Amino acid sequence: MTSARDEVLTRIRTALGDGRATPADVARDYRQADDRSPGDPALLDLLVDRLEDYKASVLRCGPGDVAATVARALDDGLGTGWAAAGVLAAPGVPVEWRPDGAAADDGRPPGQLADVAASVTGVAVAIAETGTLVLDGTPLSGRRALSLLPDCLVCVVEAAQVVGTVPEALRRLDPVRPLTMISGPSATSDIELERVEGVHGPRTLLVVVVTT
Question: What is the percentage of the chain residues whose pLDDT exceeds 90?
Answer without folding.
Answer: 67
